[in-house]
UniProtKB/TrEMBL annotation:
Domain Spermatogenesis-associated protein 20-like TRX, residue spans: 58-213
Name of the molecule in the record: DUF255 domain-containing protein
Residue ranges constituting the Thiol:disulfide interchange protein DsbD N-terminal domain according to the UniProt record: 669-777
Family annotation (PANTHER family): SPERMATOGENESIS-ASSOCIATED PROTEIN 20
Signal sequence annotation: none
Pfam families: DsbD_N (PF11412), Thioredox_DsbH (PF03190)
């Protein structure tokens, strides 16, 4: 502490007048001490530096932990973080509030910062006439969600940064997005004039916007039902909007729309031959285009946020953790059906990119990397043709140019974004070389490019670890680890889930949005809870660790206590004690890039019910669906994750681990290709049993296994003998299977298939009752 005060006094003595003005004030001293204590922990972003290289301005954002807020800590704008202090100041000084919402890797947020917020002229107007608040949408998605809705009400358009003007009770009367400096200055002057001379007009506008948002939320509370046909109708609408040349939804900019792909993948379980389905045509066309495009980082792996052209070749260069998680999961599931070598390659490269460049030493994952480096969009990822020629021999250079579409004139600002004009299997065939040999050759090329690129100044990396997004990565790693028989992925997923449990959940039963034991954090949202529950249940599937099932139930109970609307039904996005200064608790169910909190919670409830019927009842799931049905029926395409959860409640997806008997039977399926052997492992809870394949009584349902797909293959099963046992409800001995049961069989395939579909018919009973007979449809993982 003495050292800090000494440094402050030294700077007061050395610094220029503009830097020292007001430093004797207690707040200024606190801010300067905070700045000194955090030196080297964040990037100073400002054009205003003193003669000794220190920032001239330091505002209250230096006290925050958000990387995005710290980016603005040295703007000349007198920023406040969202909270009581800012709103009290607005009331006390009778000033309108200017609210700016963004995130650390947002390109247009950076542009508006450079043009307006790091400009003394603009700052003078803001500081004199407004109370200015900065919000990181990654940490406060509840605030972001409300003002995005307000923007849509106000103008029908929304995007980041969100630029909004508020009354003292946080109601918006004007909401828009990016403004150039001249337009922003003009807007500030108009708002100030209206605030002074036509105050009632602004208050009336704020009330109207608020009432419209309130009315929209009321619609969701009208009970209704969702018919199974609604999902089919939604899929038909999705398929009709496809870009049949380049894949994906036919629009610009083009986003992968991961949640739509996930919904389409679920549909494959209902068709006789997935490869002939219109859904698979859509899925494979988009996945093929994505992996060949510039939206995929052909050098290091991983996906950029979206593409600005139809062919997916020109990306917006930021990389988000949630995109990596969702797309890795989608490619894993697509490989599970198709066995496409390219899909497996993309999964491995993407997950390795995450482990190498986005993993924290605290076991979880960073949020994002920026689109810009050295104030230029995409500079880190671009290549001159002459750079390629300098790295390789003439023969290699020619191959690299053809492989990655490198041209002398470039394809983006006279430079090149590498992409694949042809898929690698086509390249292997054209060059008459084995696919694996080609991959080895390309690995050497990529390594050279990677090493050369590493010499450049990299984009900013947002190192906050958000529970919701890390949970998505846990699920992706666990699923891929199971499907590709990669224990390391499962180990990393397990470590991150444990880190969340240790560092984002406190002893008082509260949870935080960030995974960091050393810093205060925003409270967890409904999305954090829902996705973390799903992640723990996925780990329970692949590790057989009961602790993950137990913990998922505890977190679910906490979510019910913190978020459930006990009066009207449904879940709020934020906990009951979190909405300081925000006058309306939202129940948003609209899915965006990531499933909404309500969609995530519904899927979590369904998964919990499947694994233990006593934790979540089917009636609770039906009630939740009914509560949200009205708004979903109006525009179902806006709710792909919610529809996926509804579909899961009706018919479980096809996976290598499934459940029966209300979670009392866990089934795992494996197929060893070299032995042509199918193994089904049934883990039956203590006190439960199923009938053997040859029950002694004709009225009992035998346990049987049937091969459903491919129809050209034959399955020969070997069933063990049941053991004889008498139970209280039967005077006769019964032939039963209990505890752990292994069923094996041999599959003969005239044509090799990567995808096998198995039906298991069984009936589970305990000493008091029998459940209805059920058929479990499962697809085994392939093992060498």
């Amino acid at each position: 502490m003495f050292k800090l005060h000494y440094q402050v006094l030294l700077l007061i003595f050395l610094c220029p007048v503009v830097y020292c003005k007001g430093l004797e004030n207690t707040l200024e001293l606190d801010l300067e001490q905070a700045r000194l204590s955090r030196q080297g922990q964040y990037q100073v972003r400002t054009q205003y530096l003193s003669k000794i290289g220190t920032p001239v301005y330091t505002n209250r954002l230096i006290l925050e932990n958000s990387p995005y807020l710290l980016q603005h800590a040295h703007n000349p704008v007198n920023w406040y973080a969202w909270g009581k202090e800012a709103f009290d100041a607005a009331r006390r000084e009778n000033k309108p509030i200017f609210l700016s919402i963004g995130y650390s890797t947002c390109h247009w947020c950076h542009v508006m910062e450079a043009e307006s917020f790091d400009n003394e002229e603009v700052a003078r107007i803001l500081n004199k006439y407004f109370i200015s608040i900065k919000v990181d949408r990654d940490l406060r998605p509840d605030i972001d969600d409300f003002y995005i809705k307000a923007a849509l009400v106000f103008s029908g358009k929304a995007g980041w940064p969100v630029s909004s003007f508020l009354t003292h009770d946080s109601k918006p009367f004007f909401v828009a997005s990016y403004f150039s400096r001249p337009d922003f200055v003009d807007l500030l002057e108009q708002v100030q004039d209206k605030w002074t001379n036509n105050h009632q007009f602004l208050l009336k506008s704020a009330i109207e916007i608020y009432q419209e948002i309130q009315e929209q939320q009321k619609v969701a509370s009208v009970a209704d039902t969702i018919s199974p046909s609604l999902i089919d109708q939604t899929i038909i609408k999705i398929l009709s909007s496809e870009d049949k040349r380049w894949g994906g939804i036919d629009q610009i900019p083009k986003f992968p729309r991961e949640l739509i792909l996930m919904l389409l993948l679920r549909k494959l379980k209902t068709v006789d031959d997935f490869a002939l389905s219109r859904e698979w045509e859509f899925i494979s066309r988009e996945l093929d285009a994505l992996l060949q495009g510039g939206i995929y980082d052909q050098v290091a792996g991983g996906f950029h946020r979206y593409a600005t052209d139809k062919a997916w070749r020109i990306p917006h260069f930021e990389k988000m953790l949630f995109n990596q998680a969702l797309l890795a999961d989608i490619y894993t599931n697509a490989w599970f059906y198709s066995g496409d070598n390219e899909y497996k390659r993309i999964v491995i490269e993407t997950l390795n990119y995450v482990l190498n460049e986005m993993r924290s030493d605290k076991a979880c994952f960073y949020s994002a990397t920026d689109a810009d480096s050295e104030n230029e969009e995409g500079k880190f990822y671009l290549w001159h043709d002459r750079e390629i020629a300098s790295l390789f021999t003439p023969g290699e250079t020619d191959f690299v140019r053809k492989l990655y579409g490198i041209r002398q004139e470039g394809n983006f600002n006279h430079k090149n974004i590498p992409y694949l004009p042809n898929g690698l299997e086509s390249v292997a065939e054209a060059n008459d070389v084995d696919y694996q040999i080609l991959l080895t050759k390309i690995a050497g090329i990529r390594q050279k490019l990677y090493q050369k690129r590493a010499e450049r100044i990299p984009p900013f990396k947002d190192k906050k670890q958000v529970v919701e997004w890390s949970a998505l990565m846990i699920s992706a790693l666990a699923n891929s680890g199971l499907v590709f028989n990669t224990p390391e992925y499962i180990r990393v997923a397990d470590q991150c889930a444990e880190a969340i449990w240790q560092h984002a959940i406190n002893d008082q039963g509260s949870s935080f949005r960030l995974i960091d034991s050393n810093k205060a954090s925003a409270s967890a949202t409904l999305g954090d809870y829902g996705h973390y529950i799903q992640a723990m249940l996925t780990l329970y599937d692949v590790t057989d660790k009961d602790i993950w099932l137990t913990r998922s139930h505890l977190i679910y109970l906490q979510a019910v206590r913190m978020f459930q609307d006990k009066k009207s039904g449904g879940f709020f996005n934020t906990a009951f004690d979190q909405n300081e200064q925000l006058f309306l608790r939202s129940k948003n169910v609209t899915d965006n890039t990531v499933a909404s909190g309500n969609s995530a919670m519904l899927m979590a409830m369904v998964m919990l019910h499947q694994r233990s019927g006593q934790f979540v009842k089917q009636s609770q799931i039906k009630e939740f669906i009914s509560y949200n049905a009205s708004v979903i029926n109006q525009n179902p395409i806006a709710f792909p994750a919610m529809l996926a959860a509804v579909d899961e409640s009706l018919q479980a997806d096809i996976k290598p681990v499934k459940y029966a008997a209300k979670g009392n039977i866990k089934i795992r399926a494996e197929f060893r290709q070299n032995k042509k052997q199918l193994t089904l492992t049934l883990m039956i809870s203590n006190g439960w049993h199923i009938n053997s394949t040859q029950p002694l009584q004709s009225n009992l349902i035998p346990t049987t296994v049937e091969l459903v797909y491919p129809t050209t293959a034959d399955l020969t099963m070997q069933y063990p003998e049941g053991h004889l046992k008498s139970l209280s409800f039967s005077q006769q001995e019964l032939s039963l299977y209990e505890d752990e049961l292994k069923l094996t069989g041999n599959i003969i395939q005239p044509v090799a298939s990567n995808y096998l579909l198995i039906n298991i018919r069984l009936q589970a009973c305990n000493d008091k009752m029998c459940l209805p007979p059920e058929t479990v449809r499962i697809a085994p993982i392939y093992l060498d």
